[in-house]
Specification:
alpha/beta, four-stranded mixed β-sheet, 6 helices, about 30% strand, globular
């Protein structure tokens, strides 16, 4: 599918314009940072796309204001009694220093982080992040397998990555999907929503009507899931 990518500058708003072989225009403001995308048919003139985006500026700013109003997590220091989220539940962190291999354990109330004496906050963060990755790698493959059968697609590979501007991504040509490691902090049904969303892009790369119809048919609760995901602290 041929594409053409450019940028529309509207004062304080930057719109990523992508021209694709689609019938309809689709404008979106993406969490968590309010990135704005506009997908339009290949033949759309730049001035026409710009005029359309201008008419939508009040809506764009309203959506961005809602995203800015979301709660944001304070920077983590990885110290005892600090709050951390796993699968939508809040746990208290307990840090133990021991001259042994670093490890993380979880019970019904606490995350216990065991590190070597004198370990820095950066080192503690890396240990906890590695544990988060293990949790995700245990849950993502079964989700992908289930939805490959339902959607009739194949995911050639998936990636985990810290991302600031999106919850996931898809390379439909390579058959790969990418997931934000922050999803480990959200309820598991929201992880599933993002997996389904990105896998649906293997069928329809844009966010146009065909894509929305796919979600409506296969994951009817997607709008509620998207709203809940955007309400969680970033």
């Amino acid at each position: 599918m041929a594409t053409s990518v450019s940028v529309i500058e509207l004062g304080d708003v930057t719109v990523e314009l992508t021209r694709r072989d689609v019938k309809n225009v689709h404008l979106a403001v993406h969490p968590p940072d309010g990135r704005v995308t506009l997908v339009a048919p290949i033949g759309t003139r730049a001035d026409v796309a710009r005029a359309y985006a201008v008419t939508k500026l009040p809506w764009i700013r309203d959506q961005r204001a809602k995203l800015r109003a979301q709660a944001r997590e304070a920077p983590r220091r990885f110290v005892t009694r600090e709050s951390h989220w796993v699968w939508g539940r809040r746990y208290l962190l307990v840090v133990k220093e021991r001259d042994a291999k670093p490890m993380v354990t979880l019970d019904h109330r606490r995350i216990t982080l065991t590190v070597r004496p004198g370990s820095s906050a950066e080192t503690r963060g890396r240990v906890l992040h590695a544990w988060h990755l293990n949790l995700l790698h245990a849950d993502v493959p079964p989700l992908i397998s289930r939805w490959e059968q339902r959607l009739g697609v194949q995911v050639n590979r998936y990636f985990m990555q810290r991302m600031k501007t999106r919850w996931g991504g898809c390379n439909h040509l390579a058959g790969t999907i990418r997931l934000n490691t922050e999803l480990v902090k959200k309820p598991k049904d929201l992880l599933e929503y993002v997996v389904v969303h990105e896998m649906a892009h293997l069928i329809e790369p844009t966010h146009g009507p065909r894509f929305l119809d796919l979600l409506d048919r296969h994951y009817p609760a997607w709008r509620d899931a998207r709203a809940e995901l955007n309400d969680w602290p970033i």
